[in-house]
Design brief:
The chain is an alpha+beta fold. The protein has a domain of 70 residues. Helix content is 23%, strand content 19%. It contains four helices and seven strands, in the order βββαββββααα. A seven-stranded mixed beta sheet has the order 5-6-3-2-1-4-7. The protein is globular, with a radius of gyration of 18 Å. It starts with 36 loop residues before the first strand and ends in a 5-residue tail after the last helix.
Length: 191
């Protein structure tokens, strides 16, 4: 998948190379310059002696993700039921109970998006429609042309007033971090 730009959004979360589901996870480690993101919604917290979560991916397959990092509780603190857990270039692991999932040993390979799978897909679709309509450089609040952007997610706003209104009343506060990640993925050449 070729990379998009700030004004052209073409990210496809259904791309099985960049975003493999359980049926399409590579069986070999990534080569230099190659990466993928495995993501799914946290549906159950099975933590007992260490953080372990049951994740449901985009084709509704469920698998465990267990944290075996130096500070597992700290590294899994953002994991909440209903949020999306993302694993960079994850490789399958067979646990002692025979289940297949992911063993997290490096905390830099995992992050959490504060939204559900449905919200992630809806935001992605909204950005695609906005790009297809040529509206990526229009104020998200009033649709006027703008060259000012949110510092975190690069969403356009024509004024501080429009940005403040969207932050407090338009839901941007809840979406900003997710949009920021989607825009990073959009500009990534997945090799």
């Amino acid at each position: 998948m070729a990379a998009g730009t700030d004004t052209v959004y073409k990210l496809d979360l259904e791309d099985i190379i960049a975003f493999p589901d359980s049926a399409h996870v590579p069986v070999r480690p990534p080569i230099p310059g190659e990466s993928w993101i495995i993501f799914g919604e946290i549906v159950q917290d099975n933590s007992f002696t260490r953080p372990v979560f049951l994740i449901r991916d985009k084709i509704n397959c469920e698998f465990p993700v267990a944290f075996y990092t130096e500070n597992p509780a700290q590294d899994a603190a953002a994991c909440k039921i209903g949020h999306v857990l993302c694993i960079t270039s994850g490789m399958r692991h067979q646990f002692f109970d025979g289940s297949n999932g992911y063993r997290i040993e490096d905390p830099s390979t995992v992050f959490v998006l504060p939204c559900s799978m449905a919200q992630l897909r809806a935001l992605n679709q909204r950005l695609r429609k906005k790009s297809d309509a040529g509206e990526m450089e229009l104020c998200d609040a009033c649709k006027k042309p703008s060259n000012q952007r949110c510092a975190k997610c690069q969403t356009c706003y024509c004024s501080r007033e429009c940005q403040t209104t969207e932050w407090t009343e338009g839901g941007h506060r809840k979406e900003c971090r997710v949009i920021s990640r989607l825009r990073i993925w959009n500009r990534t050449d997945w090799g």
